[in-house]
Amino acid sequence: MAPDHKLSEVSVDGEYLTGKNYPAKNGRFWLWFLVGTLLNVCLIAASVGLTVMYVHTELKSLKDQMQIHEERLAWLGDASSKQNAGKEGVPTWKYAQLRTRRDQEPQVSSGRSSQQNATHLPGYGSGNAGGVVCRDGRDGRDGKDGHDGAQGPAGPAGPTGIKGEKGDPGIDGDQGSSGVMMHRRAKRALGDGDSSLTAENRESGAHDVYPTLKPSGGETYVRWGRTTCLNDTSTELVYAGIATGAHYSNKGGSVDFFCLPSDPEWAASHNDGLNSNSFLYGMEYEVSGFDPFSHENAEFLQDRDVPCAVCRLVDRGTQLLFPAKLGCPENWTEEYRGFLMSGKYNHEQRSKAVCVDEAPEAIPGSKTSQDGALLYIIEGQCGSLLCPPYVDGREIACTVCSI
User: Fold this and answer.
1) In what helix (H) or strand (E) does residue 16 lie, and over which residues does it extend?
2) Are 100 and 312 in contact (CB under 8 A)?
3) Of 66, 85, 104, which marks where a domain is finished?
4) Among candidate residues 64, 85, 106, the one where a domain is terminated
5) pLDDT, position 272
6) Which are the contacts of 378, defined by CB distance < 8 A and separation ≥ 6?
7) pLDDT tens across 59-101, in order?
8) Mean per-residue pLDDT for 248-258?
9) Where is the composition biased (Low complexity) (predicted)?
């Protein structure tokens, strides 16, 4: 009986001990289940947070892009309004060419009325029926001096004067066209009639076979970095636009910089897409190393897009860029001054140098670097360049003058 009693105790104790292990295993299971649940919650929370952050970033980027586009549209509208206003009230820059031709046309005859010779531009009333009725505007500026009028009919012939003594014979020589011209004018000034100037020509007003030519201006230049010309009656704005050129990394393409208008026109046969593989890019300032410009018109210039303005000389016929000069020779008129700029020395694309205004503007909404045509300030390098007077590494100034 004793052995049976011990076995019974062992069996009871074994079952008791086995029963005590069940709660320990269940506790570990629920512990790991709780840890896994918390880990899943953390991963889901992190995923949601990253998704919200990504959406927020994309929305902010989209908002910035919309703001940039709005600023650019506002700038283009402002440039277009400046262009449309003009200095003589011409609607668009196209009519600047028409006005140039009109200014250079001579007044043919006094028999025609000014009403017939007038050039009517679209959008301007002519005073006839059906003309555009406009409100009174502000007084305009004084116009330019008009052309010389036609000479009136010849007066009655005066009494014949006393014949003078015969002069000494002159020296024979070659007489060119200018000599003939001066000879004929001298004869007319002395009262000796010319065979080509008949009585019929005199009555019709052809008073001078060789009229004196007067400079009428008309030459243009680009003011890089600005959207206006000088506030002067002797210079007028043809159009304001955007400076462009070939990409700095391209080996080919145009070496010229262009001032594209802000209101382009397209041919009816255009085809959008990469067809010709010759491209124009916007131009950016690259002045991170040193910025010598005045910032009265733009607080920041680095990576900003460059504007430009095409200007026309009204009463001067020649313009010239003077490098390494801050001013113009005597009797010349200064259009603007600034610094010489072009592409970088180790870039693939070669470009011409331009004179950028000393107080440049920047196209609004162009703070992001997109590369393209890049402008760097030109500096002198001693060696083959004579130093002095030039200084190694010093920025080269420039002035655009006219006469």
Assistant:
1) helix 2-85
2) yes
3) 85
4) 85
5) 86
6) 339, 340, 341, 342, 353, 395, 396
7) 988 888 888 888 878 877 776 666 565 544 444 445 555 555 5
8) 86
9) 150-162
* Phi, psi of 115, deg, nearest 5: -65, -35
Task: Determine how β-strand 397-402 pairs with β-strand 333-342.
Answer: antiparallel
Q: Which two tokens stand for residue 13?
A: 């104790």
Q: Are 351 and 255 in contact (CB under 8 A)?
A: yes
What total of structural domains would you count in the chain? 2
Query: Are 222 and 80 within one domain?
Result: no
Q: 334 to each of 61, 98, 157, 318, 323, how far by Cα in Å? A: 44, 27, 51, 12, 13
Q: Which amino acid is at 108?
A: V
Q: In terms of residue numbers, what domain contains 12?
A: 1-85
- Report the alpha-carbon distance of residue 33 to residue 27 in Å, rounded: 10
Query: Would residue 222 count as lying in a domain?
Result: yes
Q: C-alpha dihedral over 240, 359, 296, 361, to 10 degrees? A: 30
Q: How much is the pTM?
A: 0.50
In the Cβ-directed half-sphere of 54, how many Cα atoms lie within 13 Å? 6
